[in-house]
Amino acid sequence: MRRLFLVALPMLALAACQAPSQAPASRSVVFFTNDSAALDENAAGLVSEVAGRAKASPGAPIRVRGFTAPDGSAGFNRALAEARARNVADVLVAAGIERSRIRIEPRGPVSYEMIPTESRRVEILLGG
């Protein structure tokens, strides 16, 4: 029993010295009008708020996921999802976030959620 304690004690000390695990991701959602990648005033304000949180967590990665509603052609929806995500990423960069921290993930069309406008969105995941 004593031998087990002597082995476990250094392991516990080593674990205590290691860096804490990364905080879970925070998720913010920006909504768009139909067939548009333009950010309105509210959306731009939300992205600016996310930029402020990102500056407070300089090592945290940022994922920007673009979505569209299922209407229209697959090609149009893929391009629109990417344009939405890129526009959000551009606002983050303009607010002082390094582009190298941002990963753009166009997801394309998704089926309608509870409210059709929920499908026309960009999710910003900070950290995690």
- Largest beta-sheet details: 4 strands, mixed
User: What integer is the average pLDDT?
Assistant: 83
The CATH architecture can be given as 2-Layer Sandwich
User: What is the overall shape?
Assistant: elongated
Quickly name the level 1 CATH class.
Alpha Beta
Alpha-carbon distance between the termini?
39 Å
Determine the fraction of residues in helical runs and give it as a percent range: 40-55%
Number of E strands: 4
Q: What is the alpha-carbon Rg in Å?
A: 20 Å
CATH topology: 60s Ribosomal Protein L30, Chain: A
Largest sheet: spatial strand order? 1-4-2-3
pLDDT below 50 for ≥5 consecutive residues: which ranges? 1-21
SSE pattern: HEHEHEE
The CATH homologous superfamily is named: OmpA-like domain
Tell me the domain tally: 1
Keywords: Cell outer membrane, Membrane, Signal
Subcellular location: Cell outer membrane
Pfam families: OmpA
Protein name: OmpA family protein
Architecture overview:
By secondary structure, the protein is an alpha+beta fold. It has a single domain, classed as 60s Ribosomal Protein L30, Chain: A (2-Layer Sandwich), CATH 3.30.1330.60. It has helices spanning 2-17, 41-56, 74-94; strands at residues 26-31, 62-68, 102-109, 121-126. The protein has a four-stranded mixed sheet with strand order 1-4-2-3. Strand 2 (62-68), helix 3 (74-94) and strand 3 (102-109) form a beta-alpha-beta unit. The radius of gyration is 20 Å and the shape is elongated. The relative contact order is 0.23.
